[in-house]
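New to this. Help decode both lines:
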Amino acid sequence: MAVNGIYVVLGEANALIALLKKARRYWHSVQAPTVLEDTDPLLRSLADLKDVLNNVSALADVAPQAFLSPFLEIVRSQNTNGPITEAALAAVARFLNYGLIDAHSIKSAQAVESIAQAVTHTKFIGGANAGSDECVLFKILQVLRSLLLSPVGSLLSNEAVCDMMQSCFRICFEQNLSEMLRKAAESTLSDMTQLIFARLPDFEEDIRHPYIRKLVMSAKRDKRRRRRRRKSKIDVKQNDSEEEVDAEVTEINEAKQELDQVVDELSRPRTSSQLMVDLHATGMGYAVVLNTDEAIDITTKCDEGLQSCEGSKEAKEGEVLESSEADHNVPLISALRRERHHSPQHSPSDVSTGGGVLQMPYGLPCARELLRFLITLTNPLDRHNTEQMIVLGLNLLIVVLEASADHLSNYSLFLPLIKDELCRSLLQLLETEKLPILASTSRASFLLFESCRIHLKFQLEAYFNKLRAIVVSEQTSVSYEKKEIALDSIVQLWRIPGLVTELYLNYDCDLYCSNIFEDLTKLLVENAFPLHGLQSTSLLSLEALLVVIDNIEQNCVYRNAGSLPPSGVDCKQPVLQRPILSGMESAQRQTNPGQTGVDIELLTKLSSLRKFNRHAAISSQLSMSKILEQKKRKRIIAEGTEVFNQSPKKGIEFLREKGLLGADPESMVDWLRENPRLDKKMIADYICSRKHAAVLEAFVKSFSFEETRLDQALRMFLETFRLPGEAAEISMVMQHFSDHWYRVNNEPFNHPDAAFTLSYAIIMLNTDQHNPQVRRNQPPMTVDCFKRNLSGTNGKADFDSQMLEDIYAAIKTDEIVMPAEQTGIVKENYMWKVLLRRGESGEGNFTHAPIGWNDHDLFAIAWGPAIAAFSYVYDKSQNDIILQKALNGYRKCALIAAHYGMSDVFDNLIIHLCKFSTLMPKSEGVGEETLELQRQRSAGSELSLQDTPEAIAIRFGENQKAHMAARAFFELVHNHGDILREGWKNVIECLIQLFRARLLPPELTEVEDFVDPKGWVSLIRVHHKQLPISRSEAGLLSWFGLGGGSNESQGVKRPTAEQENSIKTAEQVIHDCRPGQLVGDSKYLTNSSLSELLSAISQASHAIVQHADNGMQNPVRIEPLSPVDEDALVFHLETIVNITQENKDRISMVWPVLRRHIDWLLSKRFGKNPLLVERAVVGLLRVINRNLFRDTEVTTKEMLLSLTLILTLPPQAISILSKQIAYGLHSLIQNNAANIHNKDDWNILFSLLEASGAAVLPEDIFNETRAGMPERNAHSDGELMLAKPKPELE
């Protein structure tokens, strides 16, 4: 630092001396002075410090304890007022912020311990204004934060850190303090918690540490102590003469009463003065003196018994993990302090004396105690936990998980707490109706399952099932906001890269887990289709479906680019930055950015991989065939389970027929024990039948009862099935059970029947103690009566008295309740035990799947619901952002479908987009109109509902959603036309609609022509059909004398300026869609897609003709097609011709389709449509002219032979088309004469020239030429001059 540390300490000392003298003068003005200045110990110590500092050159020459002691004495002094204490605390904070205490000095550990001890036991004289006293409390928080966050804070002991944290907690929970102070305490706790758990990777799990050794070694001792405590309670009621038991029970009751009093004091409203007096009594960690006359006498002293009384809470019912049972609901520091009494050889030195062994720096014990305390705060079943306490606990748990979620599972000290207490508290908090608690629970759960889900398989399953139950709940108590939070939690979890794949692998493909992915997909689809319009839950559901599609699409992109990055690549996450201690530290970080610990390169790399699973996948390759086979087995087992729960015999037969169960009893027992969905009563009906004695014997032998007391073994046994009601069946089951227990425990009784007798007695005792009907008729059995009843039944001897007492106490305090009869908290505890037990078995293995491992299967499940949801949202919404999300979903689905070659999916996408583009003809629509068309119809827009070209263009130009859909539609066809099959039909229909609306670009409407001087003609013809004008409007204009024009008199109306703008907008949109690219890109289509395209065009042409024929009044007489239909057929023909021209390399595949189509168009059906016939002839000549140079002899011969189709036309048609034919033949011969090598081919060409009047041939040559040629209906003028009879005209 720029200033010598000595000057900083001297300055603070002088400031305090001035304040102390000011306070002394005020004191003497009230009463006569009785002491001299030199006798004031606080002033004397500061003066001595100044003398020492004036004689040294550097502060390092002074021990930290030496220059800190005067300030700490003021902090601990009970005769100083608030401003003085605040100034002393500010001085200590400044020393810490400036780094005046050397963290590398061996004496610093004692110094920081002194600071912690003094600040957590601050005393001062309270003032009349409570606000000034709160300033002292605020400064205490600042000092505690600076102490822990400073470099020397790492030297603090576990006890000191826990004391500091507990002091902050007490300020948070004191409701009579101002909200600002309590918020400051929360902020301090957050920073301190973040620091402790951010240092977690630096802590070592040393089993030699007394705290850790105690946790590992004392679990069974604690369980025995609780059993003795329960037994003592029972014996007290039976025998009041046992003084030792009386003393223990009295101590427990007193502790409970004291705890209740403390809670009552905390919750009772008090005045400001009462608050200042009672602060320490409520556990604030400091004392305030009000009466200055007798300060020393009434100074409140530290209540060391508070923690011990708080530690007397009962452990919650049904806990399983032993390591967490020992210290449940114990205050933050209690367990560590108990350790000092149990392990004196490791106890830290007393700071006040300055001697002894140095403290061990804080580490895992402190972190575990803090985590356990936070979990205790979030327990909703604890009546002492208020909403504020639960929210605070959750917020600090969020800090813990944000700072160290990836490291918590690496320590055996934390896993039991996380698996049991933390997960259960989070699941129970989901039932709350308080939204702040629910939101914090959701956030904490997300962080927990994102990082530790490999250890929490069944907890994650329970979490998803809870969220799903909230969303589908129809209870009035479940608010819409709660459903929204639950659904958003699902969406956030689904966003975790790789989680969706893991859900499918670990749950949907697990034999006895829920189908999480399939069930949630159904849930999301149901919420995406609301009954009363779009809601936020609908959009959240859409987001979740988009998450699945987006993840699969990203994987497909990487596959197309080359390969997928391996799972878990660079899974090391950037370390969360520790909170800044002071402005000096902030300046150091800005001056030396390299010391901040931020790896820019790592952050950049993680940003590019943010959508990939950061957890490493399993090393062995997953077999998709095995997984699918297991999925199939799961469906069969689920069906067999349903049958078994109705009829066990039929269920077993069903599974054996499917080959999933063998005939041996062992395989049957494995299935009965493993399947959690079997009805316990049906299991009993099956195994207790005398026909299945072998199954019963194998069922009993499947239990491991070694070194297990009889009542405990019986409790385990009866959890798996419901004991039958018949006495004979009960006797048979108990006989098998007792025999097995007797053998595996090395025959502990004098006779084998003794085990059976005692087992039966335990069941009777359970009924006697807990059956309400029995208790009404007779008093409950006592322990002496229980012993008496079993007297002489152990092979004519008595059982061990202590064992019977333990059994009696266990049954009396904890009823044996079979699963089928459990309700309420008992059932919840049992189900949680089962969940933890399954998690510890092989079933609890959670697999991180490789990236994109089963994307195809996931997409096969999700694409249908997803596209349906996109379509619904797109139709109902008017929000551009939502519409873009839906269209992005379409695009991503299209890319995935193209990647996996799923043509049916892509066809479905094109159909939906065609519908939303409004370019589908009404007669070929999808059954129901879109919402936009319904709006237009309800508005009564007569203009927009016509089928004239202008009306179609106007309707399209006015619809913004149609623009977006059209752009997406053409974009998908351009990018993924290879996999389009049935969807080509919709593409052609949209092109026809655009052709009718005159919106297509010139490359599709201007075609090559042999005769026109320009070399091309336009396919667009004007048929003089104008928009109608309403009769009322025409009459009104005439009445005013404004309607005298000829067009207006005939009821003709031109588009308005607004409609003209709509037409221009439509033209621009279609121009951006580039429909002409479809023909040019056809050369890149696969053979199958190209074949489907040509087939779709041909079918569309036939459909037009069939529709026209169905509407004819006289089916016998052929009528010409309407101009609109004729234009459509011409457009189809020219499209096929253009596609053929673009696919010269595949002419052998395309040519047959074109020839059949032209042959059909040159038939008699179209004789009255000269334009259509003309374009067919021109198209045929164009294709032959461009492709005759091909070396394929077969194709050349087929093309030239197809020219004979022209000769089949009537003479009138030949006459009309003679100019086109002649020009076309001239171009053909001019360009391809060298490619015609066959005499027959030349004969065909000359015959066409004759027919078109270009040459005259004698009769003999004519007859010779026509040999081997089909019969002609057209002849040249020279032939007609001969006496040949004229053919009949049709």
User: Anything to note?
Assistant: The CA atoms of residues 185 and 411 lie 29 Å apart. The radius of gyration is 46 Å. The first helix runs from residue 5 to 30. The first strand starts at residue 123 and ends at 125.
